[in-house]
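Give me the 3D structure for DUF8149 domain-containing protein.
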Amino acid sequence: MTPPADSDDSEPAVPIHCPDCETTSRVPLATVADAVERHNEQLHDGDEVARVDPDVADRIADLAAEDLGLLDGA
Ligand SMILES: [Zn+2]
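Predicted structure for DUF8149 domain-containing protein (74 residues):
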């Protein structure tokens, strides 16, 4: 199997899990908030059903901190 043309490691993909739809989709970090909002709006009348896995959300916070250089020399 050939991977799709997203060998771009600079942008981490974030899994969004929706227990109602029983789906998990990966979207780029930059669009994750939008994707969650749109999913919930279109499929769940704006209820916050779909969400980023809490464990992953933690890691994203770390990644973001790293990105900002907050973890340098810690
Ligand atoms: Zn859903």
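The longest strand covers residues 13-18. Let me know if you want a second pass.
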